[in-house]
DNA sequence: ACCTAATTGGACTAGATAGTCCCATAAGGT
DNA sequence: ACCTTATGGGACTATCTAGTCCAATTAGGT
């Protein structure tokens, strides 16, 4: 938790925590689908069934709510990726990771893009704190991928002179760019193609 | 021009065309920096120095203006890319293209991202017509890159069995993902790294 | 039981924003 | 010259939205 549980260091009862969570999850869902700017506080209230005073009791305003949403979505994504990547040490494992992402995105025909990427492109130029939080999350994600690549190197599946960090950055970029193209085309194909190119490159470095 | 010069098939005098252009260019700049949703019509009026009736004379509303902005920005980007890529037929030429994009983005420390990509991620889930226009623009851009790769193949600089189209898609995805990561980190490095990975992959396919 | 603080409900306000309207002026064809 | 149409200025409206406020209720420690 990078954000305080309550915005003013107040104590938080079980009921209060539950309300806070309801607000954040509702806001997260709405902002993913409608976008941050297009999601109004009234939308959040209606979706979560809480009143305005509760929202302002837990958050200083919309910006603070957006930051809480970033923390929440970030935690969910990182958790998912940690489970998916934490013990991967082969190219085949990396391909399974790719398949899961592609299949998941195919369900929506590419719509909405990456939960983190959409937030990032909408918020980065507008809120410095939010941007930094997102930047840290991407760094963490990149670290998980770099870990996989290093394990690959340890097992001889990737040339030791390759830079795991740079390859991980390239892999995330391909993923994010793929998400965006898929969102625009309403078709997963470009996302799959982009990931395949990145993976093919990594694989090719085992035969260097 | 995919959009009619005037929204109702009216005739357009030189003065009218000039006003229309002033509106679109001002809106394009504002929406690039502030985002589409955060740019109000009053912002556009103030920046372009025209009155509200003129705006509604030329456009049916904000959505129509956004679509005109997409056409305008798209034309500019495609024109720039056509000049940069139209006659490139070597890896070195592709690297010069990379350098120009990276240097240009470095001037802003990554802020604002790609003119087309930012529009795409903000608008794709909200306006089907706009999304389709952007999708066509990305396809055109991808076609320019595929052309380069095919010329590379003709000159023996790329294995003929490689798919120029898929590599071009991967290249654009790396670029767009790189833009997004650079925007979030406020640092061009990830964009440069992503492009370098894509180019290294293409280069590696000449020695297959 | 009692007292303090957390929690909740919801009306209310100030300001922003997309869109409308009406009338004035300029242009260009005939 | 004249008449039609394009262009222009800007006040006005309806609505939406973030944020405020106050009073009522619940929880939890002692």
Would you mind describing this structure in some detail?
The structure is a homodimer of 208-residue chains. Helix content of chain A is 73%, strand content 0%. The first copy, chain A, has a single domain, classed as Orthogonal Bundle (Tetracycline Repressor, domain 2). Chain A has helices at 14-34, 41-48, 52-58, 62-85, 91-107, 115-123, 128-154, 164-185, 189-204. In chain A, helix 1 packs across helix 2, helix 1 packs across helix 4 (62-85) and helix 5 packs antiparallel against helix 9 (189-204). The interface between A and B is large, with 48 and 48 residues.
**Which ranges of chain A are low-confidence, i.e. pLDDT below 50, for 5 or more consecutive residues?**
1-6
Give the helix level of chain A as a range of percent: over 70%
CATH topology of chain A: Tetracycline Repressor, domain 2
What would CATH call the homologous superfamily of chain A? Tetracycline Repressor, domain 2
Straight-line distance between termini of chain A = 42 Å
CATH class of chain A: Mainly Alpha
Strand content of chain A: under 5%
**Corresponding CATH architecture of chain A:** Orthogonal Bundle
Major beta-sheet overview of chain A: none
Number of helices of chain A: 9
Structural class of chain A: mainly alpha
How does the overall form of chain A come out from the CA principal axes? elongated
Identify the biggest protein-protein contact and residues per side: A-B, 48 and 48 residues
Count of all domains of chain A: 1
Quaternary state reads homodimer
Rg of chain A is 19 Å
Give the averaged pLDDT of chain A, no decimals. 94
Strand and helix order of chain A: HHHHHHHHH
Number of DSSP strand runs of chain A: 0
DNA-binding region (chains A, B): 40-59
GO molecular function (chains A, B): DNA binding
Keywords (chains A, B): DNA-binding, Transcription, Transcription regulation
InterPro entries (chains A, B): Homeodomain-like_sf (IPR009057), HTH_TetR (IPR001647), Tet_transcr_reg_TetR-rel_C_sf (IPR036271), YxaF_TetR_C (IPR054156)
């Amino acid at each position: 938790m990078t954000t305080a549980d309550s915005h003013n260091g107040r104590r938080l009862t079980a009921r209060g925590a539950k309300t806070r969570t309801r607000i954040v999850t509702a806001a997260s869902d709405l902002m993913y689908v409608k976008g941050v700017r297009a999601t109004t506080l009234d939308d959040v209230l209606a979706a979560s069934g809480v009143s305005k005073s509760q929202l302002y009791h837990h958050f200083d305003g919309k910006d603070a709510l957006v930051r809480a949403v970033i923390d929440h979505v970030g935690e969910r994504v990182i958790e998912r990726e940690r489970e998916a990547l934490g013990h991967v040490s082969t190219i085949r494992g990396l391909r399974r990771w790719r398949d899961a992402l592609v299949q998941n995105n195919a369900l929506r025909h590419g719509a909405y893009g990456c939960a983190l990427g959409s937030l990032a492109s909408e918020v980065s130029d507008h809120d410095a704190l939010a941007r930094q939080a997102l930047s840290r999350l991407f760094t963490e994600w990149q670290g998980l991928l770099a870990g996989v690549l290093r394990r690959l190197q340890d097992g001889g599946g990737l040339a030791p002179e390759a830079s795991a960090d740079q390859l991980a950055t390239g892999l995330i970029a391909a993923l994010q760019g793929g998400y965006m193209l898929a969102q625009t085309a309403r078709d997963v194909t470009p996302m799959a193609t982009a990931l395949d190119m990145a993976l093919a490159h990594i694989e090719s470095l085992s035969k260097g």
